[in-house]
Input
Amino acid sequence: MKPLTLTEAVSAEFAPETTYLNTSSCGLLPRRGVEAVKAAAELNATGSPGGGDGFDAVVAARASYGRLVGVCAERVAVGSSVAVHVGLIAASLPAGGEVLCPEGEFASVVNPFVVRGDLKVRYVPLEDLAESVRPETRLVAFSAVQSADGRVADLSAVRAAAAAHGARTLVDSTQAVGWLPFDAGSFDYTVAGGYKYLMAPRGVSFLTVAEDAQEALTPLHAGWMSGEDIWASTYGPVRELARSARRFDEPPPFLPYVGVEQSLAFLEEVGIENVRDHNLALAARYREGLASLGHPSVPADSVVVATAGLAHRLDALTAADIVASVRAGNLRASFHLYNTSADVDRVLDVLAG
Output
């Protein structure tokens, strides 16, 4: 059977009733994910055998996510939020250690270090991040793609600078993974919230940990499901924690993972490179249209497009059933695989009016 094209695959899974340009806030759920969550909830509601049991979904999602970001499942921990994963990393740093972050970085990447109170958090412009790593820097924490304006970090430069100074790296890939090919294995830690470009229900997040970085973390969330043999770990102290990154799991909520299992499978089917090309083409079309209207956007090779001076037009877009957002004073539109060129033209028509 001939494989479905991206357009055919998307039409089978999505039918948005608005012009939805807000994936950077929350992605749309594919039909298969919605149906899987409904079925699991019904089993739970009726007392059916296996109702409320999502162990297999967690296993499948962990492996699928690992394939998407280029690491084995043994390097992936699961949870429910980026801030929880970052907090685990923050707790591992020695008092007085320096954490280097971009100015205006997303709060979940920064605040767990700040609230420690005994770490030195230093901020520099994103474009200066690599050259600002110094010998006393213990960790460089930053997003692959900035939430506020879509700027893309120079991942290879930051990685090289951190390695040269013996610093570890933490990359939040929430605004990247799902459309941008991303190699999590190149960094000590990566985190990702699942409810944006991975199109998962809220309550899904992933942490990857390099093998040599695993010994630096204390598995603070380790309950019985973090045991090497979970069914032998249900009572009393866990005798043996998982030998993989699974020991860093935050106990996962099963229903969201039933959903993300389907979303990740869909992304693997259509291919991240195809999604990237589709999304970037739409973003480029939108940027060109904005420029022709006299509204240049923040320069970025990204699917997230931020434009100064247009925040006041959000109400007009909303009235036209166009869903976008305002961040850091900019009108922000973000494109994903369920968007079309007609969506781009529609928002440009409203902004031109």
Notes: The radius of gyration is 21 Å.
